[in-house]
Amino acid sequence: MSDITITIDGKQVNAKEGTTILEAAQSIGIPIPTLCHHPNLEPYGACRICMVEIEARGRTSMVTSCIYPVEPGLVVKTRSEKVDKTRKMILQLLLAHAPDSEILKEMAKEYGADKDRFEKEPSFCIHCGLCVRYCAEIKKLNAVGFIDRGTKREISFIPDIALKECWNCKECFPLCPTEALQAAYVFMKLLTTDTPNPISE
Amino acid sequence: MDDSRLEQIIDTHQSTADSLIQILLDIQAENRWLPKEALERVSEKLQVPLSRVQHAATFYKAFSVVPKGRHEIHVCMGTACHVRGAPRLLDSIQDLVGIKPGETDSELKFSLETVNCLGCCALGPVIEVDGTYHGKMVPAQTGEILKNYE
Amino acid sequence: MTRIQSPAALEEIRKDILAHRDPQKPCIILCSGSACLASRSKEVAESLEAEIEKQGLTAAVDIKKTGCHGFCERGPIMIILPEDICYVQIVPEDIPEIISRTIKEKQVIERLLYTDPATGEKITYESDIPFYKHQERLVFGANRRIDPKNIEDYLAIGGYSALPKALSQMTPEQVLGEVKKANLRGRGGGGFPAGRKWEECRNAPGDIKYVIVNADEGDPGAYKDRSLLEGNPHLILEGLMIGGYAIGAHQGYIYVRQEYPLAVDNVTIAIKQAEQYGLLGNNILGSGFDFTVKVHKGAGAFVSGESSALMTALEGRVGEPRPKYIHTAIKGVWDRPSDLNNVETWANVPLIINNGADWFTGMGTEGSKGTKIFSLVGKINNTGLVEVPMGVTLRDIIFTIGGGIPKEKKFKAVQTGGPSGGCLPEERLDTQVDFDELTNAGSMMGSGGMIIMDEDTCMVDVARYFLEFLTGESCGKCVPCREGIRQMLKILTNITRGKGKEGDIELLEEMAEVLKTAALCALGRTAPNPVLSTIHYFKDEYEAHIREKKCPAYSCKELIAYYIDPEKCQACMLCAKKCPVDAISGGKNLIHIIDQETCTKCETCYDACPPRFKAIRKISGEPVPPPVPEEARTITRRSKKDE
Predict the structure, then answer these.
(1) Which of A18, A50, A78 is the endpoint of a domain?
(2) Is the link from the previous residue into A159 a cis peptide, with omega within 30 of 0?
(3) Looking at beta carbons, which residues of chain C come within 8 Å of A82?
């Protein structure tokens, strides 16, 4: 595989064919924010916060850096007025769900996102999918998945699998950017077992 | 739905993973809903994780994971029906039957759903009850039509 | 039926079929498309078959149940051949008279003919009816002549001529070249040149490739794909096979939404018959080309009509779109090269091969060639499916073919492109139907839905309606769409309920930008279009809702009130009796009053008040006048001769 040279924020980077812009940027220490990305999981492209501005074949556009493969002559800007405006709005939309999430609060400071721009929403989950994908791709247990669609989409544990496997695993818990995952697990246990106080176990 | 019928349906589609949605459609058509046991059996036979079967069963509007009423009322909310007054029609049906779209009444008599275009725009606003279409509806007619259903 | 082994053998079969058909034999054609079936066409057919048998005419008169003819406003439609007499809005009770007078005595029954609302003239022949006369029904016209469940009808009208021509007289590259030259652009909404997509797929590495028919037709108000697939499934199959040949794909998929059971049935029957005749399967017509087709039903998700989502659904997974930078033509179903085109796009292919690219480019505009089928619906007199050459103006479609707006209301807007499109106002009526023209005007061609709106339609509510639709259809994976549409819908709902604030329009525009830039798929990226086009052309309506709490169209329930004018009320009791919530008090000679607290704004009273009184009016943006005091309520009705 040949090396491809691209430019990120004015700096030249060499990367192998098949590398994503995100990986190329990380290799030279240029930070791009992510929420749904994990180096050991297939890129998901759902949070959209890693979007960057590119110039390729004479045209400017915004692409998801966690998925877009490097190509010769690519010019990337990881910050710009458009990039920042987009990230700010995405953060504001997510802060309506999880205003206390540490990761979101930090990013909010960087992009000037106002956590009160939108009214509070009842669910904490920001649908990064890390728990679902980790359990499917790494643990291969599929103990938690998504159900429904649109604004009704949520994560759901499969009781028969989760009650058997999760207590001794919990590897997805630290991946969760908000409190949604723990909450969903506890709730599921409460609904499906007679254990009087699962939280104290 | 008895187990042997369930097996038959799955076998008609060669139990391959890519037939998941087609199999669920057949079960839904015959059984009128997808019980948990059916989802588990499909997951087992197709070697597809139960979480994916569950996602499919809840993602697609054609499926129901709870029992439906004896009569299904579908109110078309397509754009043409919308401009011809479908929202008021839906309101009157909701008031009459006492349920919202997606719900079934407590006696399991009626289930109410909105549909996005039945393709009979010339008859708009349209409702369909158990396969029978009622076109050019006005709210005042809903009582007349629904009282015929036991 | 033995499989046909060569193009020559096919021609022999076709000749044989035609030899057994007498064009002068009486034939009764009955439209049995889904919409006419909803208008009791099935009962008409049963009545017809029974009467024909009763009269001993089974051998002498043919009955043909066809797919949709397109003139849905006047269905069920019946055509009597060989004269080509057209009867409209047939009911089963008409049948005995039709048989005895028209079939036996060759007399035309005036009351069943189409009456031109402008001139009052009765029109006997289908081709003279203005709705049909101004169309160019090249793709759709065949529907009225064939029974979709009978392959021989398709063969009799010249069907399956393009396929043998392609397989035996042209190379795959030549077929591809012809479609490229014709500049056939996608009829599903994107308008992408089909030939370019075919070429990309053909050149993509890999031995196994797929060609796919997208019959998901999710745009509410569009049903032209349904009518094509129901009424002429072989046309689409033939186009698909020619495409497979050009690309090097041997497996086809037809993804049909499950809400179209008749289309699923008819295409399944068509596939079986084509297989029996050797027009599908191995070594088609002795050419060495193998091709098979599978039907895959959708399960109720608009987003699964998006091409990457559709391909994911074909794999048996949940039909969510995938973020992708490698075209699906190169990596699609199972990561293999997959070409996906819309039903109407495929339907044009046999015509292009039969008649040549030059014939096709002879029609239409510089950038948009050929014809386009629209479903003309909403506040329009002639609801139905309309096929016109590209370049015809919206005005011509709506007024000349569509017959204008019913009840003498004023035209307000035409919406094209479904939830991804926009609303164009009166000043844009001379826009030509052309992919780029419509996009430049702020809308888009879309798959063909054309919704007409009049003075009673609230444009803010239209924007809200489309966002509500998309809220239910969004897959929910990406933040801009799931959360952005959620918040935009909230803002619009508040505006329609009188809770709009200054700054709402600007916030909507700001969010629209983010969705357009950052959403994962076309559903999210085009979701802002209805909002943006209505803000652009109808800003005054938004401002009225926000600043004056007024709905200028008198449509938004929370912002209107129904009021009985005491000067005009004649105390006839009609409205009071019909009110479903008993909100109207009054009696004979006692002026009626609507109790605003109880009123549910269902409009039943408004419709019930006799036109000669017109006593009920809608109020918006101002307080309802207080009720007339008890003493002043008694009136003496005007006698009929004074009215």
Answers:
(1) A78
(2) no
(3) 517
Nearest to C285 by CA among C7, C542, C604: C7
Q: Which residue of C has its CA nearest to A20?
A: C325
Q: Are the CB atoms for A38 and A22 separated by under 8 Å?
A: no
Whether residue A68 sits in one domain with residue A9:
yes
Q: What is the dihedral of CA C353, C237, C37, C137, to 10 degrees?
A: -10
Verify that A147 and A159 share a domain, yes or no: yes
Q: What type of residue sits at position C254?
A: I
Neighbours of chain C (3+ CB pairs under 8 A): A, B
pLDDT above 80 for C641:
no
Whether A161 and B59 lie within 8 Å, measured CB to CB: no
Q: Cα(B104)–Cα(B124) distance, rounded to whole angstroms?
A: 24
Q: Under a CB-based contact definition with an 8 Å cutoff, are residues B34 and B24 in contact? A: yes
Q: Which fold has domain B71-146?
A: Glutaredoxin (3.40.30)
Q: For residue C579, which of C594, C591, C568 has the smallest C-alpha distance?
A: C594
Contact call for C519 and A48, based on CB within 8 A: yes
Q: How many CB atoms sit inside 10 A of residue C108's CB?
A: 16
> Which residue bears the tokens 């009509």?
C305
pLDDT digits (tens, 9 = 90+) for C520-563: 999 999 999 999 999 999 999 999 999 999 999 999 999 999 99
Structural domains in chain C plus CATH codes: 25-81+85-124 (3.40.30.10), 145-361 (3.40.50.11540), 371-454 (3.10.20.600), 459-547 (1.20.1440.230), 560-632 (3.30.70.20)
What is the rounded distance in angstroms from the CA atom of residue B17 to the CA atom of residue B15? 7
C-alpha separations of C420 from B49, C392, C416, C512 in Å:
34, 22, 8, 12
Number of domains in chain A: 3
Question: Strand pairing partners for B8?
Answer: none
3-state secondary structure (DSSP) of residue C617: strand
Residues A13 and A36 in one domain: yes
Distance (Å) from the alpha carbon of B31 to chain A's nearest alpha carbon: 21
Instruction: Tell whether A33 and A100 lie within a shared domain.
Output: no
pLDDT of the residue at B118: 82
Could you tell me if B61 and C299 are in contact, meaning their C-beta atoms sit under 8 angstroms apart? yes
Residues of chain A with pLDDT under 70: 1, 194-201
Residues in chain C with CB shorter than 8 Å from the CB of A127 are 476-477, 479, 482
If DSSP codes are grouped into helix, strand and coil, which group holds residue C55? Answer: coil
Cα–Cα distance measured from residue C85 to residue C108, given in angstroms and rounded to the nearest whole number: 8
**Tokens at C613, concatenated:** 């009184």
Q: Which of A139, A158, A165, A166 best probes binding to B when mutated, by most B CB atoms within 10 angstroms? A: A158
* The two three-digit tokens of residue C333, written as one number: 């179903």
Closest-CA distance, C297 to chain B, in angstroms, reads: 7
Which run of H or of E encompasses C261?
Answer: helix C261-276
A45, A46, A89 ranked by CB distance to C514: nearest: A89
Alpha helices in C110-161 (DSSP H): 130-133, 151-156
> For A107-119, how does the pLDDT look when each residue is reduced to its tens digit (9 = 90+)?
999 999 999 999 9
**Residues B54/B39, Cβ–Cβ less than 8 Å:** yes
Residue C541: its H or E element: helix C539-543
**pLDDT for the residue numbered A201:** 37
Other beta carbons within 10 angstroms of residue C399's beta carbon come to 16
Number of separate helices (H) and strands (E) present in chain A:
6, 7
What local confidence, expressed as pLDDT, does residue C463 receive? 97
What does pTM read for this prediction?
Answer: 0.94
Q: Please tell me whether residues A84 and A53 are part of one structural domain.
A: no
In chain C, residues with a C-beta closer than 8 Å to the C-beta of A96 are: 483, 487
Cβ atoms of C605 and C584 within 8 Å: the answer is yes
Beta carbons of B51 and A148 less than 8 Å apart = no
Residue A53 shares a structural domain with residue A109: no
Task: Calculate the CA dihedral of residues A34, A35, A38, A41 and round it to 10 degrees.
Answer: -120
